[in-house]
Design a protein that fits this description.
Oligomer: single chain
Strand order of the largest sheet: 6-5-9-10-12-13-7
Radius of gyration: 18 Å
Helix content: 10-25%
Number of strands: 13
Order of helices and strands: EEEEHEEHEEEEEEEH
Strand content: 25-35%
Structural class: alpha+beta
Shape: globular
Largest sheet: 7 strands, antiparallel
Length: about 180
């Protein structure tokens, strides 16, 4: 584990300190002491430290990227996504476990998810007895900035979680997601 303490200096003399780390399990909290995030910024910080310039490090597998977009505390999928990747939980032995869709599909699904009633996420759910469906992770990409990720746990209530908000999965949204998912 490599710990980082970063100082952002502003022209007016103010400074902002951010604490984070790069850790093999990607279980790191990034914080300024007031606000915090579970976003895995470690690889980007390490690259910036080595190269002397900040540039986001894209994940090798888009299904495993962080997906922490500003605004996900207010909407399940904020803004206007440009593309959608639907990822199935799998052993990654038998592809395809992911399927990409264009802007119109991404925006339609984002609108459907945003229409659901949400509550602040506790990052927990109640398992449904007898259900054994693979989970799905939705990655909404944007022309600029980070992606937004939404986790669908088909055998849990609430089934939908973006890390900051949770919602119950109704049948029309469930059917829409299953149509877009790889088999």
């Amino acid at each position: 584990m490599t710990n980082y303490l970063i100082r952002f200096a502003y022209p007016d003399g103010r400074a902002l300190w951010i604490g984070s780390a790069e850790e093999v399990n990607h279980c790191v909290r990034t914080t300024n002491g007031t606000a915090s995030s579970n976003s895995d910024t470690g690889p980007a910080i390490t690259t910036a430290y080595k190269d002397g310039i900040w540039r986001p490090v894209p994940p090798e597998d888009p299904c495993r990227g962080p997906g922490d977009r500003r605004g996900q505390d207010e909407l399940m999928v904020p803004g206007r996504p440009g593309r959608l990747t639907v990822c199935r939980d799998a052993t990654y032995v038998r592809p395809p476990y992911r399927k990409r869709h264009g802007r119109d599909v991404a925006r339609a699904l984002a609108a459907a998810l945003n229409s659901l009633d949400t509550v602040p996420s506790r990052n927990t759910c109640q398992g449904l007895g007898g259900a054994n469906e693979r989970g799905i992770r939705l990655i909404f990409d944007y022309p600029q900035g980070p992606a937004a990720a939404v986790r669908i746990s088909m055998d849990c209530v609430p089934a939908i979680n973006n890390g900051l908000l949770q919602a119950d999965l109704d049948n029309p949204v469930r059917d829409q997601i299953l149509r877009l998912a790889p088999s």
